[in-house]
Amino acid sequence: MNTQLGKDIIRKEARNKVTGAAKYTNDIKEAPLLHAKLLTSPHAHAKIVSIDTREAEGMEGVQAVIMASRINFVCGSLLRDRPPLAKEKVRYFGEPVAIVVAGDEQLAKAAVKKIKVQYHLLPVVNSIQEAIQSKPVLVHENLIAYQKMVDDVYPVPILIFVTIKKYEKVICKKDGITVMRC
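Now predict its structure.
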């Protein structure tokens, strides 16, 4: 039986790696190569009042500044409920608002910093108690209009479908939460 355990083996790529001659994916520069950077929301829930991209678009080497007005579709694995870029409002911290495409990465980063977005902050939901209030904060106002990707997902708040049967009775009501027993 021929084994290589305990023996030195010279690897065919070793010389290139130790001399610095090896080529990695990051070393390959195909011309022309463009870089994209995202401008993301610093707020969890806010209305987008205005976006000023003029300064970023005027920078030499910036190829495009893309905003939601140029994108007309929504994404999502269970529900088609997420636009690739925020349109009219942001629904979570870090939601992409704009994309800058430029000739190099540093220029794209600099151009993102030149975009001015004015937000009107909206209330956020931080607990289950806040979510089940009689007038909760709606993050998705058009929930019923979203396209379902799977049949088990129903895009309507579940509380609408709760029915109380005759044999159920209320045990206690505390802090607006009703506990029932059969």
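The mean pLDDT is 80.
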